[in-house]
Amino acid sequence: MKKITVTLLFMLLITFGGLSAVQAESSKQRIFDDANLLTTEEIAKLEKLAEKYSVKRETDFLIFTKDNEEKDIGKYMDDYYDEHAPGFDKAHGNTAMLGIDVHEMKRDVVLHGFGKAEKYLDSNRLTLIQEQIIPDLSDGNYFDAFESFILLSDKYMNYRPGVNPENPFYKTWVQFAIAIVLGIIVVGIMAYHVNPKMTTNASTYQDMNRTKVLNKRDRYIRTTVTKRRKPKQSSSGGGGSGGGGIGRTSGGFSRSSSRGKF
After folding, report:
1. Hey, is 119 helix, strand or coil?
2. Is the distance from CB of 154 to CB of 57 less than 8 angstroms?
């Protein structure tokens, strides 16, 4: 009887502990629209989406909007991580952040990754995400941009670190095309080996005793040499978009980062 009671208590602790964890995740605020760029309905949809993928990836997805003439949005996000200690698994844990400042003199977009997100959303991947959401940010489609941030982050975290998730070889249609080409090559090789080889040629029925060369003549006409000046190599180089890298907050927490303008 005592063993049964202990077992029931243990099961109840696990059940209510799990429910408490789920409720805690549901009660978290992840969308901070201080610039008032979203409707109430859009915020609710993004909160639900952020919660879903935060649980799936065990990483909090946070979004900030500001219209601030003074404080840099990247600094604001660093300070928020230091002071509020977000993280799915623990304080100062796995967190992916997107922040934008819509002030007319700034128009900055910044992405940060902490903990697991620093590893799976490194600076290169954050820059890829940034480049894909900037068109929507520039057009004022803020909800679409924020939704894409969450969905792309989820997609990229499915790849092992160091791999470019936008590599064409990871695209389904490219893999399908490669499979078709390989199939055609294999079938062609098989068909070549199945067909009987020709055992006769042009000389099979030729009588070499009666065949003679009647005339042979070579005529040299001329040789023409054309000279062309070799172009000099240009010393100028191209530029790139985006910026960031590995950095630390004022509190000493390591993060990946990417930033740009929209």
Report:
1. helix
2. yes
Q: pLDDT tens across 174-232, in order?
A: 444 454 555 556 555 655 566 555 555 556 555 556 655 555 565 656 655 555 554 44
Letter string b/e over residues 21-53, b meaning 16 or more CB atoms within 10 A of that residue's CB = eeeeeeeeebbebebebbeeebbebbbebbbeb
Whether the model pTM is above 0.70: no
Cα 181 from chain centre: 27
Contacts of 163 (CB under 8 A, 6+ apart): 170
The count of C-alpha atoms lying within 13 angstroms of the C-alpha of 146, restricted to the half-sphere facing its C-beta, is 27
Q: Which residues pair with 61 in a beta bridge?
A: 96
What stretch of H or E contains 148? helix 142-156
Tell me: pLDDT of 100 over 80.
yes
Is 97 within 8 Å of 62 (Cβ atoms)? yes
Q: Cα Rg for the chain, rounded, in angstroms?
A: 32
Structure tokens at 248: 């630390």
DSSP bridge partners of 91: none
Task: Name all domains of the chain by residue range, CATH numbers in brackets.
Answer: 21-169+243-261 (3.10.310.50)
Helix (H) or strand (E) holding 254: strand 254-261
